């Protein structure tokens, strides 16, 4: 599957319509972003069942601000409309594959339960 370009106009729809979305927050002037781009693309080819998306932080400043992106590239994984991973830095291919595997293995019922418990404790 080719990478989807996310904007503030289509973000909610893409996340709502897909169970598992990997999001690369990037900018064209960012050297590490350019280094990570081919790793992200290769992973998208290896995992056609997942949605790989990119947010150009220069063009989509509101979206980057909404997620408090302070450093790029930042990889975020959203499963069932819940952000389960967010980390700045260009991940090497084996690390990206490991992160994808860990995110696939999450029990989302347990994740939602933990979120609910944390909210109730506040």
Automatic annotation (TrEMBL):
It comes from the Bacteria. InterPro entries: Thioredoxin, Thioredoxin-like_sf, Thioredoxin_CS, Thioredoxin_domain. The keyword Acyltransferase does not apply. The keyword Electron transport applies. Pfam families: Thioredoxin. Keywords: Disulfide bond, Electron transport, Redox-active center, Transport. SUPFAM superfamilies: Thioredoxin-like (SSF52833). This is Thioredoxin.
